[in-house]
Amino acid sequence: MLFETDEIKRSYDQCGLVWDVVERFSKLPRFFFTPSDMNVEAPHFAPWWGGVMLREYDNKAVQDLYYLHEMEHAGTMPYGPDKNHAIDDPVTFKNKIRDNEHQASALSEMTIYCEIPELRRHTFSHPIFVDRFLWPRGTCEKACQKFLDKWKNDPEMLSKEMMYARASVLTSQTDYENDLAAFWLKRFYSQGQAWSKIWTKGGRFVQVEKAMVVFRDESLGGDRRIALDRHLQWLFSAEVSEGTSVPFYTQAREFSTVYSAHKNRYLAAVKKNNEGEVIIPNREYSSKWAVQNFSPGGG
Ligand SMILES: [Zn+2]
Fold first, then answer.
1. What gap in Å lies between CA 195 and CA 230, rounded to an integer?
2. 108 CA from centroid of ligand 1 (Å)
3. Which of 34, 45, 80, 266 could form a disulfide with 86 if both were Cys (CB 3.0 to 4.6 A apart)?
4. 294, part of any domain
5. How far is the C-alpha of 237 from the C-alpha of 247, rounded, in Å?
6. Residue 213 pLDDT > 90, yes or no?
7. pLDDT score, position 151
8. Is the separation of the CB atoms in 119 and 7 below 8 Å?
9. CA of 279 to the centre of ligand 1 (A)
10. What separation in Å is there between the alpha carbon of 206 and the centre of ligand 1?
11. pLDDT value at position 181?
């Protein structure tokens, strides 16, 4: 099994939130892959075209959160209802990716802890955004009953409420210098805009949107194996991978430059802050989109 943490496995076995995520993800055939060029592919947004990069983290709970985040991206990513209505408008596309990132992040950064509060002690030693709701006193001992009750009674609404609270931090003018969890959320946000710019240039995103409508319809209406084979052939066609082993190599390389520059600034800031003995969140795992803690839209 992909998941390694007992709490996550239990939620799957007991048909809880993790089971829901995996079920939604599995509605279409998917593929897992090992990157051929980590420098270029690390921040590539493969869930958009149905792929999940295999990654190893020292902290296995964080690794499981990474996979849940990527699965939620893929499982909740909408495409046009039919071939004639594939998304081809850049503004709608940007909004869609942004919303998808918010949704995946709300799951892997917040609602997973409503479902499995005991997971929190296995993840990060630094404060994260959800702590202010579930553990407002700053300890991971007992989660706030009010939020646990809300989660039990109306998980969809609480998920949205938390998602927008997080989104408000990202788009706010406040710099949150005295609020480290919010401060670091915000620091990663700008990459989503760079990502959208790269993909809307020349309308490149339309190619993915159209291909995904075809892939989805072929998968649901016929043999999943054949549909996936065709889809992979397309991803590695000359038109898409440009003779490399990376689909959309040009876009991957372009965004990896932005990503690396951002990461270096972040690491420098961490170093500086550590020297000042300030606890800094380790968001290495999620750095693709500040937003996304793991991918674009912010990832
Ligand atoms: Zn993401």
1. 27
2. 9
3. 80
4. no
5. 8
6. yes
7. 97
8. yes
9. 24
10. 20
11. 83
Residue 276 Cα to ligand 1 middle (Å): 30
Name which of 89-103, 139-153, 220-234 the model is least confident about: 139-153
- What are the tokens at 280? 């800094």
Centroid of ligand 1 to alpha carbon of 53 (angstroms):
12
Query: What is the whole-number distance in angstroms between the Cα of residue 80 and the centre of ligand 1?
Result: 21
Ligand 1 center–CA 37 separation, angstroms: 20
Distance CA 186, CA 169 (A): 7
- Cα(70) to ligand 1 centroid in Å equals 6
User: How far away, in angstroms, is 100 Cα from ligand 1 center?
Assistant: 8
What domain range includes position 67? 6-220+249-286
Residue 237: inside a domain, yes or no? Answer: no
CA 69–ligand 1 middle distance (angstroms): 6
Ligand 1 centre distance from Cα of residue 6 (Å): 23
Instruction: List Cα–Cα distances, 299 to 63, 99, 125, 274, in angstroms.
Output: 15, 11, 23, 26
- Coil vs helix vs strand at 247: coil
- 243: number of CA atoms within 13 Å, CB side? 0
Q: Is residue 231 part of a domain?
A: no
- Number of domains within the chain: 1
Report which of 160, 104, 53, 71 is spatially closest to residue 292, judged by C-alpha positions. 104
